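Table S5 (text form). Sequence records supplied for joint modeling of the two-component complex.
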Amino acid sequence: MSEERPAVYPYIPNSVPAVRDEMLRALGVGKIDDLFDAIPARLRFRGRLEVPDPLRSEAELRRHVQGILARNTTCRVYSSFLGAGCYLHDVPAVCDEVNQRSEFLTAYAGEPYDDHGRFQALFEYASLMGELLDLDVVSVPTYDGYQAAATAIRMAARITGRRKCLVARATNPDKLSKIRDYAKPDLDIELVGFDPQTGELDVDRLRRSVSAETAAVYFENPSYLGVIEPGGEDIARIAHAAGALVVVSVDPLSLGVLAPPSSYGADITCGDIQSLGLRMQFGGGQGGFIATRDEERFVREYPSRLFGITPTVVKGEYGFGDVAYERTSFAEREAGKEFVGTAAALCGITAGVYLSLMGPQGMRDVGEAILLRTRYAMEGLGDIPGMTAPLFRAAHFQEFVVRFPQGTSVGETNRTLLQHGIFGGKDLTRELPELGPCALYCVSEVHTQAEIERLAQVLRETVS
Amino acid sequence: MDDANRQSETRLRRFHQAKWDEPIILELGTPGERGVLVPEVEPPVRAAVGDVLAALPANMRRREPPGLPEISQPQVVRHYLRLSQETLGVDLNVDIGQGTCTMKYSPKVNEELARLPEVAELHPLQDESTVQGILEILFRFQEILKAISGMDSFSLQPGAGSAAIYANASILRAYHARRGDGNQRDEIITTIFSHPSDAACPKTAGFRIITLYPGPRGYPTLDALKRALSERTAGLMITNPEDTGIFNPEVDEFVRLVHGVGGLCSYDQANANGILGITRARDVGFDLCHFNLHKTFAAPHGCGGPAVGAVGATAELAPFLPVPVVTFDGRRYSLDYDRPLSIGKVRSFYGVVPAVVKAYAWVVSLGPEGLRTVAETSVLNNNYLMKRVLEIPGFSAPYEPGTHRIEQVRYSLEDLTKETGVHSEDVGLRAADFGVHYWTSHHPWVVPEPCTLEPTESFSKADLDEYAAILRRVADEARSDPKLVRSAPHASTTHRVDPAPLDDPARWAVTWRAYKRKYATPIR
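The corresponding structure-token record, covering 988 residues in total, follows.
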């Protein structure tokens, strides 16, 4: 750092020495350190923080950060068949245009008057999701699909006053980890397995496990393993007969072609909105939704904010505000429902933009394209001698399990694929060892015929 | 007097916010319009796999198309840009009025870097050899936070401040459970001037909450703490400075007493902006802490996330941090999942990674002296603004008059309300007519008729003078024309709402479809 010239900080206007002096004079204080007189000397840090020396100009900063990031290989360069909760989709340019608008990007927690646009955009997000889910209540986004599932289950526990939850084993183990941690004070989690042939939830087992203590039955559709669960009605009938609620996690991008969970008996629907116009961002693009019917006993149990439309004092003018605010921890601290704070609002606004652009036909088109390409990939990989794809006899959406010949190392196979510029599917060997050498492959609307065929060809050479 | 004169000369804006009277998006469009197209599926693919829709289980086929609007792209863009214009981001206003939120400038170059394909187009499960760059940034940023806090280990996974507080509560729970007294230690102590989540998150994690109220100096007395401590104490979860901007100078004694009964201490550092490089969590004795990257570290707030609440721990508690932790062996960066004591996942994957990229770039642009300048300037700005605000009759700053505050102040307008009948909330709505935010405070209002102002380092002296002049004008109006204030806002996008339907199950409407069902007579 140059000694003769005091540092100027472009982001800190009052770093100018003359201004600082003037302000200190106004305060009648000799030096800035005097302003910290409330902090006793014994608590003061007197060293120099061991953080990197500054790169003051934008040019130096860019060079430095880009230099580090250059060691990454992106899914634009390589062909990726990874999913498992984070998905490669086309992101309409308008989604990025809106979520980098400085007004939205830098807003926070203003009132419904000065931040009317933020309230309306989030009300619209909830409204568009409501159409997709066929439900009247959708929360402002929570952190991600994991949190949405965990909160949905705890809502069910509060609504029913019970403390057991049956959770489908065909759930992402990381998500299960989150659910277990979050449900600990209120709920005991018991897993319900899947049929080894079809991948569907083991309904017989469910029937035996459900009891008068069951608060909720939780499953995913499509499941973690890509299986479209056809047994929703049966599952709901069994759960409801015991007075339990049904919680279903769903990929909203599937709902242009697949029936919404509310149609087969889900009481609480939840999931992740990353697939709706958000880039993968190394897993940073997630956002969670929770949705229910408009019944007071459900609405009162949401921890998140709910933005409602309401009249203003001016005739014909829309206004917005918080619905049933007293249920939140903002209003009631520990007496509120769970907790609320900053979560993933901008993801919600982006998802609203996505749904507006797509419309009903776009959602149908993308759903159908994913079904077609997934099926094409399953057939192409299933044709390879020694390989089974899909492992489960079921309809699949976007993801499917591939079983390699006995003795194959999925890790080795993926390393070979990498040499061909392909990110192979997620290795399932450790989390589901009973399936044998398996991987979870993901195919979406962005995977071309040529890309899928190339994957099949490289795999054919690798496996044989 | 000179200063006061100069301030009264500050020219107030003749502001009016954008008002587009914009319909709800579901009112827009025409059947058949499209905003974007999906890539066509190649005919050979279609031919090979046949009718995939017919092949779905019948009950799983969507019967009716979703009632989404059909809108062309220009109309979608126009709609959302109009809504954006009706939103008052930091970039538009002197954003001092959202106290506790640390509204600061989020540098554009950081945004540019975080949106590079080398961040945006990475899948979290890619082979580690292909993500060494982003892992290096995560690792380097962990090291930065270690230096700033004195802690031994960090996780960047939690999705914002409350998620971080929850993670810390979960770590406390796991720590005590491992020592075999998890059932006994079921109480968390916090303070009323710590964020509501410092009470709500540990409650969600299963704890009973004891809340300490301020003593005469604005923070709880040691006696109050001693009365709360017992063999049931699991830990202390507090901010410091508290949301009043008052720094508890006995905090190390608080920590010592809690440790003395076997509890742990977790530091909510949402209010760290004024103490970066000034005082460190570990040096005070804390076992856990968290920082909000969207506040202190200049990642944008995004209308309320996505964000990061970075959790720091001592070596003793590091094994309990969420998995995975980013490690470096001198050659390669890795994701370490092999941590048997970990509380597991608190968020999917590794957190909101682009926010970490922005925070990293922010720190690197400043360096150690720059970080200290941030803290010093935010404290200078705050004390300067406090002087200006307290010159306005009707405003006070309860507790310890005449002393300096750290980075924010919780003011009281009680005197103004008593004199004029105008409440703090009314003052806030009138302030909106001059193009600024003004937030009362979290509930409960221990400080009567409160407002909390936090002028971060991003604001110039002229900005501070402008904000104070707005408050002075509104206070004057409260005396001369209270009706004007009580009926504000007059220059915002909308006017005072009817709050009654929002609490009435028969009329509340969280979605457009609920609104259409419930409102026989439409609002417009």
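Note: Chain B touches chain A through 218 residues (CB under 8 Å).
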